[in-house]
Amino acid sequence: MKRKITYRPSSAQIRFGRVFSGVFALVALGFVAIGVTQVLPGGGIFGLVWTGMAVCFFCIGVYGAVSKEGPYSRWNRGSLEIEDEGAGTESVEERMRKLQALYDQRLITPEEYEEKRKEILRQL
């Protein structure tokens, strides 16, 4: 049985990401300076590629350091489906009894009950 888990980075992880992105931007800025002063004047196409990539890396670092939600957090806040190790050990009857108990205690809505009941019955 698969279950869905949603991950949200903690505030400490977001702070670390911002600091890391800031350092990344500073290093990239150094590579931009090297590209403009050393590589670009005599490097031809290589100088253009070097400097262009360094500018792109700098922009990515700045975005990560100053973005509202933290660096790359919209990509970290996804869903993950994992296999539940012990899901196959319970019989259908046991799972249906547990589901009915949750419904009777009003811990799940009628819609959730019907959805889960259909899911259990599909596994027959």
Note down, in words, how this protein is organized.
It is built from five helices and two strands, in the order βαααβαα. Strands 1-2 form a two-stranded antiparallel ribbon. The protein is mainly alpha-helical.
Topology, element by element:
Elements: E1 2-6, H1 11-43, H2 45-66, H3 73-76, E2 79-83, H4 92-104, H5 110-122
Q: How large, in whole angstroms, is the Cα Rg?
A: 26 Å
Question: How many strands?
Answer: 2
Q: How far is it from the N-terminal to the C-terminal residue, by CA?
A: 13 Å
Low-pLDDT regions: none
User: Major sheet: order of its strands?
Assistant: 1-2
Strand percentage lies at 5-15%
Supply the helix-strand structural class.
mainly alpha
Order of helices and strands: EHHHEHH
Shape: elongated
Tell me the helix content. 55-70%
Number of helical regions: 5
Mean pLDDT: 81
Largest sheet: 2 strands, antiparallel
How would you describe this structure in keywords?
124 residues; mainly alpha; two-stranded antiparallel ribbon; 5 helices
Provide a quick synopsis of the model.
69% of the residues lie in helices and 8% in strands. The chain contains 5 helices and 2 strands, in the order E-H-H-H-E-H-H.
